[in-house]
């Protein structure tokens, strides 16, 4: 969504020059290791895992919606060795043109105990594709098909633990209430059939399983879920694609059925057609199923067996929230911030007077700690939103939120605050053109 917690990391990559050239072996586990478990961070409904590229530790989004591995968000002071590099152009979702990139072959990738000694990677240096500021943590790239194709992968969103197994060593446990789906692959991306209900009508959908999208559901045909008679949507910035910004309409659908599981009042987006025209998609595809649905399950992805299994988790019944403020925020440049105050009592001192009397004194000094912290910047304000109505603008710096310094918040905490409940008052202190201003608004539902 347009909020800090609803970025879309949907990379439908079209390679315009060059070839993909997958390695023959790919990822594998050592002979004495049948499976591996690693922790991950769940940020904006996205799974962020530690990876190592040619000896350098990095953080990647694990994304079922991508075919190729992409590296981005690299700073000038980052030192990463890349092998067998050649120029290339790549194209993806968004309104922009193809971007310049480098293709690097023969790299060593490690995920836990799994290793690939001949991994192909695409490197994008466009600064606008640095997603770390909007995620609040360093994000260096995305990893998808090349990892999933070798293993049976369990993603336990509630415990934030990723487990992966050699297919021959994985045993499916009996699960009466689980939902299983046949995976249909197009361009190495998995699709399943689900059923939705909107505007009083039920209809089938073939959707891409896209763990790299923060949203719950995308439907490409707006006539299925958007009503102009009784307006049930608002126009919004949906996120960033490899070729630029993605816009569309946000609404809710009545139901989404995943086998025997039924989710109610599901946040749904209908992206603008021109922003998805660049995607090379499965002809029968009707949309995408994203992280805001997947996180409600333990998800078992079995690419070799062409099967996906869902088992509901403790997050299943969580309502579908969205940003009611209308603000899109990101971390800006770092600055030196005055931190905590400390009173220091110096050692006791005294002086002797002529009358053999003593004068005692304590010298107190005040010290402040200093720390580097990122500025919190407004990068988009949704029209007709509570934030827009009180005069907040793109480029404003947020200094305080409800009496607390902005740099003391995690981005996901601001997400929770802006999505908390209708009627909640938000007090901001902002900096604009050197002037400090106070703004206040009340969260209001749009759909």
Word description of this protein:
With 447 residues, the protein is mainly beta. It folds into 3 domains: 14-169, Acid Proteases (Cathepsin D, subunit A, domain 1, Beta Barrel), CATH 2.40.70; 179-312, Beta Barrel (Cathepsin D, subunit A, domain 1), CATH 2.40.70; 327-335 and 372-442, Roll (Pdz3 Domain), CATH 2.30.42. 6% of the residues lie in helices and 49% in strands. It has 6 helices and 31 strands. The protein has helices spanning 132-135, 145-148, 273-276, 291-294, 386-389, 411-418, and strands at 14-15, 35-39, 41-43, 46-53, 56-62, 69-71, 85-91, 99-111, 114-124, 141-143, 152-156, 161-165, 179-182, 184-186, 189-198, 201-209, 217-219, 234-241, 244-258, 261-271, 287-289, 297-302, 307-312, 327-345, 349-352, 358-361, 364-381, 397-401, 404-405, 425-432, 435-442.
Topology readout:
Layout: E1 14-15, E2 35-39, E3 41-43, E4 46-53, E5 56-62, E6 69-71, E7 85-91, E8 99-111, E9 114-124, H1 132-135, E10 141-143, H2 145-148, E11 152-156, E12 161-165, E13 179-182, E14 184-186, E15 189-198, E16 201-209, E17 217-219, E18 234-241, E19 244-258, E20 261-271, H3 273-276, E21 287-289, H4 291-294, E22 297-302, E23 307-312, E24 327-345, E25 349-352, E26 358-361, E27 364-381, H5 386-389, E28 397-401, E29 404-405, H6 411-418, E30 425-432, E31 435-442
- Helical fraction: under 10%
SSE class: mainly beta
Give the spatial strand order of the biggest sheet.
Answer: 4-5-10-6-9-8
What's the CATH superfamily of the largest domain, by name?
Acid Proteases
How far apart, in Å, are the first and last alpha carbons?
13 Å
Number of domains: 3
Looking at the structure, the CATH topology of the largest domain is Cathepsin D, subunit A, domain 1
């Amino acid at each position: 969504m347009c909020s800090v917690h609803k970025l879309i990391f949907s990379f439908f990559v079209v390679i315009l020059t060059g070839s993909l050239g997958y390695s023959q072996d790919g990822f594998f586990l050592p002979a004495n290791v049948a499976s591996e478990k690693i922790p991950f961070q769940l940020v904006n409904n996205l799974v962020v895992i530690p990876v190592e590229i040619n000896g350098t530790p990095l953080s990647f989004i694990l994304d079922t919606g991508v075919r190729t591995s992409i590296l981005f968000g690299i700073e000038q002071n980052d030192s990463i060795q890349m092998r067998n590099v050649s120029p290339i152009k790549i194209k993806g979702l968004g309104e922009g043109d193809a971007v310049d990139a480098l293709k690097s072959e023969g790299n060593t990738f490690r995920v836990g105990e799994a290793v690939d000694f001949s991994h192909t990677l695409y490197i994008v240096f466009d600064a606008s594709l640095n997603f770390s500021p909007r995620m609040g943590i360093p994000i260096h790239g995305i990893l998808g098909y090349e990892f999933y194709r070798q293993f049976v992968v369990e993603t336990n969103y509630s415990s934030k633990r990723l487990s992966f197994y050699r297919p021959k060593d994985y045993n499916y446990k009996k699960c009466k209430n689980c939902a299983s789906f046949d995976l249909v692959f197009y361009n190495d991306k998995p699709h399943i059939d689900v059923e939705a209900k909107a505007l009083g009508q039920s209809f089938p959908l073939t959707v891409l399983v896209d763990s790299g999208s923060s949203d719950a559901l995308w439907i490409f045909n707006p006539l299925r879920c958007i009503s102009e008679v009784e307006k049930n949507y608002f126009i919004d910035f949906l996120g960033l694609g490899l070729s630029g910004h993605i816009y569309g309409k946000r609404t809710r659908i009545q139901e989404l059925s995943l086998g025997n599981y039924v989710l109610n009042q599901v946040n749904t987006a209908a992206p603008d057609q021109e922003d998805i025209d660049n995607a090379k998609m499965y002809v029968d595809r009707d949309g995408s199923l994203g992280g805001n649905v997947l996180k409600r399950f333990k998800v078992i992805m079995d690419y070799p067996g062409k099967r996906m299994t869902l088992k509901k988790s403790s997050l299943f019944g969580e309502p579908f929230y969205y940003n009611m403020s209308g603000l899109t925020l990101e971390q800006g440049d770092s600055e030196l911030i005055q931190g905590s105050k400390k009173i220091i009592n110096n050692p006791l001192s005294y002086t002797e007077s002529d009358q053999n009397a003593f004068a005692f004194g304590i010298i107190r000094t005040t010290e402040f700690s200093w720390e580097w912290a990122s500025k919190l910047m407004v990068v988009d304000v949704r029209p007709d939103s509570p934030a827009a109505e009180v005069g907040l603008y793109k480029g404003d710096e947020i200094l305080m939120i409800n009496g607390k310094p902005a740099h003391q918040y995690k981005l996901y905490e601001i997400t929770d605050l802006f999505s908390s409940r209708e009627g909640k008052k938000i007090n901001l202190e902002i900096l604009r053109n050197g002037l400090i201003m106070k703004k206040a608004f009340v969260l209001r539902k749009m759909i």
